[in-house]
Structure formats: C-alpha cells, structure tokens
Amino acid sequence: MKTRVGKHSIVGGLICGAVLLGAAIPAMAEKIGNCEITGTKGSDPIKPAVAGQLTVQTTLPAPAWWNGDSPDAMKDGYEYCMAVNMAYRAGLDKVKVVNVSFDALVAAQTKDFDIALAEISITDKRKKVVDFSTPYFDSDIGVAVKKGTKYTADTVKDMRFGVMQGTTGANFVDQKLKPKEVKVFSDTGVLSTALMSNQIDAALHDTSIMLGVATNSHGMIGVPYQYTTGESYGALYPKGSPNETAFNKMIEDMKKDGTLAGLSKKYLADAWGADPAQIPYLKP
To answer: What is the pTM of this model?
Structure first.
C-alpha cells in the first residue's frame, strides 16, 4: 500500500527568493553572504534563462545543503554556496532560488531555470528527460529511525517505511526491501515529522540527508545503517541546455581547486555529526 502525503504544488505556486551578488559586493570580494567565493568572476559565461541572474531550482528543506527553510531565508549551505560560486564564475550579479517539487523536477515538469541543485542522484531513467552534470557528490541510502528502534535485516519486512516521492530511495524500498507498508512524502520535512510522530517506523533517503535530519532531531533520531547504491549526485539541467559545457567546467574546476571539498568540510561534516563512511552497511 502506498499513501501520498504532503501539499507541495508541482507547477505554479513556486516559492522564490533572490540574492544580489555584484550590485552590493565588489568584484574581488572573498565572501557573498556567508559563502566564501573562489575563482574568477566571469571566467565561464553562460546564457541564462533570465538575463542578469542565475535561476536555481531546489527542494526545501535540505539542512546543511541549503540553510534556510525558504528561498528568502537562505544563508549558506553546500549547494547554496555552490550555486553562488557558479553565478560568480558566470559573471552574473544575482542568484534566484526557486523551491519546487522534487518529483516534478526530475520528471522535467518545471521550467524557466538554468540549473537545479537538490541532492539529485544521476540515473538512466532521469537522463531520458533531463540532462546531468559531471558528478559532484557520492550518494548511498541511509536509514533513519527513532532512538531505541530495532532495525535489522530480519525486522525490515514488518516495518512501515517512509520515502520521498520520485527518489531513488523510493525505488530501492519497493524493489529491494519490500516491507509491509510504504508511505510516500513530498519532502524531507514531512518525512521526518512522520518519523517523529510514529506514523512510520523508518525513513529511507540519501545518507547525507538522513544525517542532517538526525542532527536536527535533538538526539531523537539516529542513522544506524545504510545501503550501498554506487550512485552520485549531479546538477540537473533542462534537456539540451546551452550551458552544460560551461557548468560542467565550473564543477570540475571547483573539484580541482578545493572549493567543493571546502564546502563539504564546512557545511556537511559539522552538520551531520557523523562520518558517513563509518556507518555500517546492510545488504538488502
């Protein structure tokens, strides 16, 4: 049985926010907001969907990746600062953040954007309707449970699982774990609320995201296990985007110059409170 929970609209009712870069910040500034800036402004120009700005779609909340529950409240975070750095290298003076449904995003049902950064696993199925960047982060699937919950390979079948709609985690539960009940949620906020309120016994999503949920639970949620997927996160582009080459170059350059490693250390390691590599793996 699957139950769809949540009220995020797919198209229309999008939530937007913007930050100005060059208008108030000198070109040689080392920071924009809380984000440290690297590279050279204008080194990789693009053809933006809206002149003068980088339009970035994501799905909130996403603690540590996007620190702020709404686009207007955004301060920093791995992917937010990644977007700010990309706008800077593109020579643009504004970043517009648009909060959309994840399910709609990976199904190519959103429009009028340049790039999406939303912890999106690269899959062949998704490649049929959208394009992806070179990978920027490795992704496995973590299991979040309330502290004291017994989670083993033997108890999985009798548990109520919560997953986020349209994700690889949702497919993994259906195809590999096959528990007695699966509930599908619209975002990580309602997913974690369902776990805290005992609507589900376990939440399954990317390990990085589940660690963020656990950190924000004041010790009530833990991530005892994870499953290997061999997948990676990539930036998502509209199919046939003219900016794919420029964006891919930016991402590769940020790997080489240490920008992405710095973002991971600053925003992910501290926020998670755990090293993903130390979380035990289970076989499905």
So the answer is: 0.74
